[in-house]
Design a protein that fits this description.
Blueprint lengths: L1 H5 L9 H17 L3 H28 L6
């Protein structure tokens, strides 16, 4: 849900309603001092992606299935 709201920030200004809502949420997070939450979402996604690649790579070491990557 949060990601759906955050997406339009990077989109063009065609969808201003979404941007306004995203701005309000961002402002709310900043007021609470938890705007790190936004960064955490993206960091967590990146970390997941990295660990998945690492897991696939380790798997390929033991099984010899290089096509896992």
């Amino acid at each position: 849900m949060l990601e759906e709201v955050l997406q339009p920030i990077h989109a063009s200004s065609q969808n201003q309603q979404h941007r306004r809502r995203a701005g309000q949420i961002y402002k709310g997070l900043r007021l609470k001092g938890t705007n790190a939450a936004i960064g955490n979402i993206f960091n967590r996604k990146a970390a997941l992606r990295k660990s998945r690649i690492r897991a696939a790579w380790t798997c390929s070491l033991f099984t010899g299935h290089r096509e896992v990557l």
